[in-house]
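Q: Convert this sequence to structure tokens.
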Amino acid sequence: MTLPVLIQKQNNTIAETRLKKFYSVFNQAILMSVKDNGDFENWNYWAMDKKDENGDYLNQNELIQKNFESYLEPYLKITDKKKVINEAGQEVTMYYLADGSAFKFAERQNRDISFYPKNAENCIKKYKDGEHTVGVCMFEFVFNPVSSSVKWKYHYKKGLEPNLYLWDGNESSLYDANDAGCNFRGAYCTGLIQHNGWRIPKDYPRKISY
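A:
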């Protein structure tokens, strides 16, 4: 194999291995927290969207960090954490894991989680430089077990799952759903990989790079 092919194969392997591991260890942490803190429906954990008097969304990173430290961080092996400026230009906390991956919550609420298999801060820089990063170096997950809306039916009463908000249940939609499909904005790229046994499909429409 040529060097570019070998590099791409290695990049894919890193994504596959670390996505699967993150999914596993985060869900194990949820189960351990449920054992100690009771069902998550009763947790004082959820940080929902809030707006100020001007109608702008509030940055709730401090509350999100506090709640994460109370309910989930004790059950995860976090090797480092620091404040970073996210893709939206907001300050959030990035959590680093021993395998070189990292994750952060959205600044507005703690439902949406961005996972970076490698070089998290470089991935954010790529986004700010105008590159498409979702499904390339950043992958979307959701932990939203408390919303019974049909829009969230693939997340209700579940642990951490790939972002499947509004998914219609058809595998083709993981590629082609308007906006969210992996061929478009990329929100469903994580779900596409999961549905392929945590392997990058041969027809995966993006090039994994860090």
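The longest strand covers residues 78-85.
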